[in-house]
Specification:
Immunoglobulin-like, rod-shaped, four-stranded antiparallel beta sheet, five-stranded mixed beta sheet, 6 helices
Length: 419
């Protein structure tokens, strides 16, 4: 071929932009070499031209991007057959890459490979080729092994690696939180750092934070025999909300002819809800309550304060009550018409101005002898105040009062009838 025909000139023009010098003698030599093989491996002239024409069209349409040689740690993504004088190069293809090699041999990087040497068998299953590069000066050969297995790179949040989880990520001081490590062997050396100065060497520890704040929990893990230590933080920081401060004072109010109540002054900080327990079975939810103790004794008073985050605090104090409260009821009365203690009525019911119901019973028989809801109608010592005179002795009285938080409830005592 001393001259170029029209087709060969088109091939030459297509390849010139890629710095591959066209030499018709090389192509003629290649064709003669192929013709000398057996009939099964022979490539016809028209087939070769079609192959070259297809390669030229692919190059001209920019389906292959020229890349510079990559470093030695670049992962192989496939092999391709190229004409003599062009160097096979591997390039990275980015995350989420999957490469399958079916028994491909080891190829030397920067080694010139001809079409006849590579063939179609070497390029099977290599979709990751990103381009070719023109051979430059010879460099020391570097062996690039091509693994016979599928390699998958994961990206984003699809990782199934070790993870540290907490049973809750928000709480209040004193909240017990359970921690566990996922995708780590149970056997091994564990060291948990809870970020508040506390540590644990258990695989699945529980921990309570005594102070408010934001804490990053870190797990350090290594195999039972030692080796590399892997540090893994918890997936979320632990947020401990601030708790309220519960506090109160108490003040006894004991004055003549008045109800001896106790006033509780709430001095809590950061509270939104309050729960009082007065120690005698009575409770309250108001901020500053008053309470009447009906029996003498020592009582433990507790206050539970809750804030907007649901965190609580607790305070306790004791109160001593010296005397029973009997609504200022007299201990005796003598219905003998002498003008002195002729009738019976608890004095407090005359001045409180509250609704009540008074019942009086014979302590020996349990018989109801008198009842009223009017403080101006005291008991005169007769059955139902109209019948026979009651015999001298002890009688039990009971008052049911309806006055909300302060005085509501049942009061009782006894009175001695004297003739």
């Amino acid at each position: 071929m001393n001259g170029l025909n029209e087709f060969e000139r088109s091939v030459k023009d297509a390849l010139e932009p890629y710095e591959v010098p066209y030499n018709s003698a090389d192509w003629a030599q290649l064709e003669r070499t192929l013709d000398q093989g057996d009939n099964s491996g022979r490539v016809s002239r028209s087939g070769l031209y079609a192959l070259l024409f297809g390669g030229a069209l692919a190059a001209s349409s920019s389906l292959f991007v020229l890349v510079a040689p990559v470093s030695g740690d670049t992962e192989a993504s496939g092999l391709a057959s190229v004409p003599s004088g062009i160097v096979v190069e591997a390039a990275r293809t980015g995350a989420n890459m999957e490469v399958e090699n079916q028994g491909a041999p080891i190829i030397k990087r920067n080694e010139q490979v001809s079409v006849a040497e590579v063939g179609t068998e070497h390029t099977k299953g290599a979709p990751g080729i990103s381009g070719v590069a023109v051979a430059s000066e010879p460099k020391p050969s570097e062996v690039v092994p091509v693994p016979n297995k599928t390699i998958t790179k994961e990206s984003g949040n699809t990782s199934t690696g070790p993870a540290v989880r907490a049973s809750v990520t928000e709480g209040c001081p004193g909240t017990l939180i359970d921690f566990a490590a996922e995708n780590l062997p149970e056997k091994g050396i564990y060291l948990w750092n809870f970020g508040d100065g506390s540590f644990s060497n258990k695989p699945t520890p529980s921990h309570s934070f005594s102070k408010s704040g934001s804490f990053e929990v870190m797990l350090s893990h290594s195999s039972p025999g030692g080796g590399n230590i892997h540090n893994k933080p918890a997936a979320d920081q632990i947020i401990i909300h601030e708790a309220p401060e519960a506090s109160f004072n108490l003040l006894k109010q004991e004055y003549d002819n008045t109800v001896p109540s106790v006033h509780f002054e709430n001095r809590s900080l950061g509270g939104q809800k309050y729960a009082w327990d007065f120690g005698d079975g009575a409770t309250s939810e108001i901020a500053h309550p008053d309470h009447v103790y009906k029996k003498s004794g020592v009582y433990n008073v507790s206050l539970i304060v809750t804030n907007a985050n649901g965190c609580v605090d607790h305070a306790e104090r004791t109160v001593r009550i010296d005397n029973d409260y009997d609504l200022l009821s007299p201990k005796t009365f003598s219905p003998n018409a002498d003008g002195v203690d002729d009738v019976f009525m608890p004095e407090a019911l005359k001045t409180l101005g509250v609704k009540f119901h008074l019942s009086i019973f014979d302590s020996n028989t349990g018989e109801l002898v008198y009842e009223t809801s009017d403080a101006q109608r005291p008991w005169n010592g007769r059955l139902t105040n109209r019948g026979d005179q009651c015999i001298p002795g002890d009688y039990v009285w009971m008052v049911e009062m309806k006055d909300g938080e302060k005085l509501g409830g049942t009061y009782n005592g006894s009175v001695n009838l004297v003739r």
